[in-house]
Structures are given as C-alpha cells and as structure tokens.
User: What shape does this take?
Amino acid sequence: MLRSIFVLFIFIYPLAVFSVIRPQEISFIDQGRLLAVTAPDERCVLIIDPAKGTIDRKIELSGRVKGLAAWENTLYMPEYETQTVQYGFDNLEALPVPVPPAGLAVAPIKKMLVVSSPGLNKVAIVDLMKKVPPTVLSTGNQPNAIAISADESFAVVANQLPALSALDTQTAASVTLLNLNAKKIIKTILLPYGSTNTRQIALSPDGKWAYVVHTRGRVNMPTTQLERGWVNTNALSIIDLEAKSLYASVLLDNVQRGAADPWGIELSPDGKTLWTSLSGVHEIAKLDLHLLHGLLDGSVIPSEIRKNDAKARVAWDVWEEIREDPAKRTELQHDLAALYAAGILSRYPVPVNGPRGLALSPDNKTLAVSGYYSANIVLLDANSLRPVQTLSLNDADTESVADKGEALFHDAVKGFQGWLSCATCHPEGRSDGLNWDLLNDGIGNPKNTKSLVWSHETPPAMSRGVRASYDVAVNAGFKFILFAQATREETEAVKAYIQALRHDKSPWLFAAENEFLKRIKKGEKIFQSKKTGCATCHTGPLLTDQKMYNVGTRHDLDYHDQFDNPTLMELWRTGPYLHDGSAADLLEMLTVLNKDDRHGVTSHLDENELKDLVAYLLSL
Ligand code: HEC
Ligand code: HEC
Assistant: This one.
C-alpha cells in the first residue's frame, strides 16, 4: 500500500516568510539525512529534514540563488546580485566571483569552482583557496548548467539558447567543453538543428559521455498541427567527450504523447540509469542507459532482446539499421518509437506540478523531485518511481492569479497531447531564439519568437502588428499553437502572468567595471544623438514609439517591408535580433545588416563607438 505523508510546513514556518516559494535545485547532503533546496527568485536556501518533515533551517543570503552545488557537507550557493558564492554549512565563507553567478559546479580535488553567468554569456573558473586569480571565458548563449568530470580534467557547460542567426540552417543551443587544466575552451558542440532550452547536464561516471536534455523545434515546418512531434519534440542528446562531438540525440516522446519541456537530469552512480523530469507534462522518465548504449554501439543484438510487441517492429528496425551502419544513429532524432519499443524508456506521472530538480539519495533508493508550481518536494522510490513522501512548502491559497497563469503558461497538458507549452517557445516568458512559421501573417515567412516582457504595454503585438494587442495573441496562442480550449479564467490568468513580467536588471550592470560603465554612458550619448537617430523611433521608457517602419530589414521570405518597432528592454537576453532573428548579435545588426543606414545611421561610427553603443544596448 502506498503511504504518503503530507506535511504542511506552514504550521512550522509562518506564511509571511515567503510569498510563493518555487523550489528548483535540490541536493541531498549530510549522508542523505537532509535536503538542500533553492528557489531561483528567493534569497535563501532551505534545509529540509525529510525524516522529521520539517525545515531544519533557512540559510539567508543576499542575492537570488539560481544554482546549487554540494560536496560532502559543503554547500555552494551563488548569490547573483552580489557576485559572490557562499560556501560551507554551519559557517559560511564568501568567495567573490568576477560575474553574477547562476549555474555552478565544484571540483573538490582541484579546489575549483566553475560558475556560469547567463546574460554575460561567460563562465568563470575560480580558485576556492583564493590564491590564483579567476579565469573568465566566453561561452554560447545563456550558459546555465555545468558538470565537471570525475577526474576534474574538464567541465561541460550547457548553453540554453541558440547563438546563431535564426536563419542559419544549423541554429541550435550548444554545449561548451572546457579544459580545466589549461583553463581554456576546447570546443563548442551544436545540438541538432532547432534544439533549444537545455536545462540540466550530467556526465557518465567514466567521463566518456555528457547527457543533456532539451526541446527540439521542428522550425522548418509551419505550425499547422502538433501530431507526431510536427512542431516540437523533446530530446536527450549524448555527447561523446573523447571524440568531442554529438554522438546521438534520442526522443523522450511517445508517438501520441509528447514529453514536453524536459528539465532535471540525474544518473545512477554506475551510469546505467538516467532519470529526467518532464516539467511540462508532470512526469519522470527513466531510461535504461546501459541498454541504450549497447544498442547504439552495436554490442547488443536487437533481435536477441525481447520485442515488446508487434506494433513496435518499425521502430525496432532502426536498431537493426544502426547495428549495420552506425551512421544511422542520426535517424533516432526523428524516431518517436525507438526508445519505448526497445524497453529503454518508461514514463511515470508524479504528484507535482512542474517537476524540475532531481536528486538521488546516497543509498540510491530515493529520488527527490522538486515541484516548481506545486511548491512541494516529493520523494519517490528510485526504482518503481512510486511516491513515498510529499513535503509541501506552501499553501495553494497564497497563489495569485498571475502565479496560476505562470503555471498554465508552463503546462503542456493543457495543449494537445503534451507536445509543448507556451514556455517551450517563450522560456521564462522570453524567447527561445528560434524562428517559427505561425500562420497569423501568412505561410512561409517565419518570425523570431518575441519576448513577452512589456508586451501588454506595447501594442500592437507580433512583429507585423497583426494582433491588436497581447491579449488577442494570448487567446490565439491557445487556439492556434497549442490547439487547446482555454477557459476565460485560464486566459485571464495567463494575461495576468504576462502583465506581471518585468525586465530583469542587466547583469552587465552588476559586473561593470568603471571602464565599461564609461562605455555605457558614451553609448547612450550616441544612441540619443541626432546623427544616429536611434531615439527618434526608440523613445519613451520602453524605447519604442509602437509604430511600424521600413528599416531595410526585409528578408527574401517576407511579404512586407514594415515591422513593428519593438521595445529594447532586456536586449542582453533576447538575441538573436530583428523580426526574423537574422542578427546573431547587436554589432552585426548595426553593421553588416545596416549597410545603407536605413536602420538609424551607423556607418560613421568607428569600432570603439560601435562597442560603446552595443554596451549601452546590453545594459538596458
Ligand atoms: C511554437 C512556438 C510558440 C508557442 C508554443 C507560443 N508562441 Fe507566442 N509567439 C511565438 C512567436 C514566433 C511570436 C512572434 C510572432 C511574430 O512576431 O509575428 C510570438 C508572439 C507572442 C505574443 C506577442 C508578443 C508581442 O508583444 O508582440 C504573445 C502575447 C504570445 N506569443 C503569447 C503566447 C502564449 C500565451 C502562448 C501559449 C498559449 C504562446 N505564445 C505560445 C511563438 C510561440
Ligand atoms: C525609423 C525608426 C527606427 C530607427 C531610427 C531605429 N530603429 Fe531600431 N528598430 C526599428 C524597427 C521598426 C525595428 C524592428 C525591425 C525588424 O524587426 O526587422 C527595430 C529593431 C531594433 C532592434 C532589435 C530589437 C530586437 O529585439 O530584435 C534594436 C537592438 C534596435 N532597433 C536598435 C536601434 C539602434 C541602436 C538604432 C540607432 C542606430 C535604431 N534602432 C534606430 C525602428 C527604428
């Protein structure tokens, strides 16, 4: 009999302490006796005692904690705003880092920390003994998660969003390999075309493989239907760390059931089992990695394994083909039945809304899952994935309408067959960096996903202004993209969520040294100058006059040459730029893509002035 213990912390902790806590990163500490939990918007780490069902303590910090690492009994807690990592447990020590830190991983033998700074698109390698100055390196777009090999010779960084022009037929999120001995970037490996939203990353214990989960937009298709992953599939990519290349990318979906928005990843210490949380469909997927690798490298003969059922034959043939010709591994990117048919993949619903972080207990018996929107931690039997204990951090009554809207925005169950959620294309309410051929402005003219920050203040909506305002776009999003019926209450909640979005202060301002601040000031002058003319159109608090202009950005596939003047807030996280994502970065937009000075006058600016202008734009 399944026994769940419902423990409401609200009796122990007065509700006033948190509004709504959204647990994300999670880690066992103290030989599995305690759990450390972070929420990306909170300035604290909660230490939970599952045996007692209580909060053992709350570690107060001075910045938002967007990541977490643990080694034995030491916790490493990044403080985003203060550019510090606090570490320890009973007593904390502060380690200054040269960037606002988000993701982090620890190399305990080398006494090194690697921290990532999305927004700045940098990682820093920091000496815990404070003897060697930190090394700062540039990565791909929005580096969020890091894993370090067991021998500590290298680190692997997941870059959440694509960094190329959205028109590039290879555009995808990437993985950066770092050599920790030389403190150098070894290589950036692109995931398959259309991949985005990498969340967590893990390495096999032998250091041979890196595993990263992500979504994969089928961006060369118009968004006319969702069946069979037509618009979006959800994938696990395996990087061969010796060959330094993508080894295989397999789908976590089933033929009629998408596995939207995979997030967390955890491996058994023997490297034979992988768990991933499917945050959009509220499930955990368990993969038999041992069998997967056996089938991938041909050491397992497909016909010798029990065939699950006759229907699976077609999928089974894929494995036969791969055994004959390993190059056929690329077929797996499109095969919705391969894993399931071979008995590699099983999926389990879990009693949480928005499962994200995963942690395996040191005795390998318990898998802890954080429920982001249900604000709970569920402990599962690692084998059967049955819930054993539920720890609630919040009372659902504290949720505002906007909070409910946020949960709906991230819920793929609302959409047809769980293939995708609004957040698949609008991660964190922003942009996935991809172009989509939505049908609201004709077919065959893809547009770059727009961030929804300030969408409600800057009508019309869409780059062609085809929706009068954001609320029309919300209703249309449910109907024509998710193929879902939303109630009025639901669309109102999603609108409240979008209205509540605010631009986050640019990390370039936290990290800025005097030199850079001077650049920003000079850049602002250039932006405001009559000569460049930027401020004639980009005016007001959100830097848009909300009008349509022809600024020479028409692309071969476009039907028109006028586009809606967008807000410039949060440019540091909304690349690539322009309605078709044709500008990989701002410098390219101001130079290569503005040769005729139709989009402001920029041809007279020298290299230094262009850098100043870019610095200003990144500070917004
Ligand atoms: C398949 C990807 C995809 C999905 C899923 C998606 N969107 Fe969008 N969304 C886009 C793209 C692309 C644009 C920009 C289109 C353009 O500029 O013409 C956009 C634009 C918008 C805008 C207008 C923003 C502005 O200020 O112009 C709103 C509002 C919006 N989406 C809301 C939603 C909501 C709500 C959902 C879920 C019901 C959703 N979207 C799901 C791709 C998507
Ligand atoms: C005549 C009006 C006008 C002027 C002048 C102008 N812009 Fe724009 N800007 C626009 C329009 C319209 C777009 C959208 C174009 C598109 O999507 O293809 C845009 C887009 C942008 C974007 C991309 C935003 C995004 O999220 O993709 C940036 C950045 C930008 N402008 C900066 C500038 C700078 C810097 C200048 C001065 C050198 C400038 N603009 C001058 C109208 C103008």
